[in-house]
Write a structure and sequence with these properties.
104 residues; alpha/beta; 3-stranded parallel β-sheet; globular
């Protein structure tokens, strides 16, 4: 059976499953590194930045201790976000845990 895009549907499914698996693996590794950094540095608010569709996936893999320290997130467009522009300060100072902001 051919996929509507002209390719093999089974092959496209396998590629998509591999992408999901690699993303999950990356999120787990990142959560582990973040947990180590927070543990070494003390109780600091955790602010997550990234693409709108990936932040919930990442948050779902955070250990309970990190989720308790989650202060908020920001949606970032890597093409417009620069090192000079910080969107984390307003989140950290607002005290409103769990909110998301856009970088625009």
């Amino acid at each position: 059976m051919l996929h509507p895009s002209g390719g093999n549907g089974l092959q496209a499914h396998r590629v998509n499953e591999r992408i999901v698996h690699l993303a999950r693996h990356h999120y787990r590794d990142t959560a582990t590194l973040l947990e180590r950094a927070v543990r070494a540095g003390g109780a600091e608010p955790v602010i997550i930045g990234g693409h709108q569709d990936t932040i919930p996936q990442f948050l779902g893999l955070l250990p309970a201790g990190l989720r308790d320290q989650f202060a908020g997130c920001f949606i970032a467009d890597p093409h417009t976000l620069t090192r000079r522009r910080s969107v984390t300060s307003p989140i950290a100072s607002s005290g409103t845990g769990g909110t998301c902001r856009t970088s625009a």
